[in-house]
Amino acid sequence: MATQRTTFDKLQRERAKKAKASAKRERRLAGKSDEDLETPAESGDVASDLLERIERLHAQFDAKQITFEEFEERKVELFERLAALPIE
Question: pLDDT digits over 61-72, tens only?
Fold first, then answer.
């Protein structure tokens, strides 16, 4: 029994999905404000700032201002940044 090859339609759907994700990523990066780009000087300030951003993110999701996918992407990004901070 031979293995079934991937259909052209499936390849097109996968490419479209990747293109859509790439465009979404570009829009998200282009839409960052100057406030998002600023970083506090001390790591304690950075940690509290990240925790406040996580709290605002949850509030936005609860208010249905953002989609679940966007919520998850931004949450993972914030938690990665929080985990990368040095422990005092």
Answer: 999 999 999 999
Residue with tokens 């790591």: 43
Six-digit token pair at 63?
Answer: 């208010």
13-52: per-residue pLDDT in tens?
Answer: 888 888 888 788 777 777 765 444 444 455 568 888 989 9
Which amino acid belongs to residue 48?
S
Q: How far apart are CA 19 and CA 47, in angstroms?
A: 34
Backbone dihedral angles phi then psi of residue 3, each to the nearest 5 degrees: -75, 145
Residue 33, sorted as left (phi over 0), alpha (psi -120 to 50) or beta, turns out to be: beta
The dihedrals phi and psi of 84, each to the nearest 5 degrees, come to -80, -10
Q: Which amino acid appears at position 14 of this protein?
A: E
Decide: helix, strand or coil at residue 29. Answer: helix
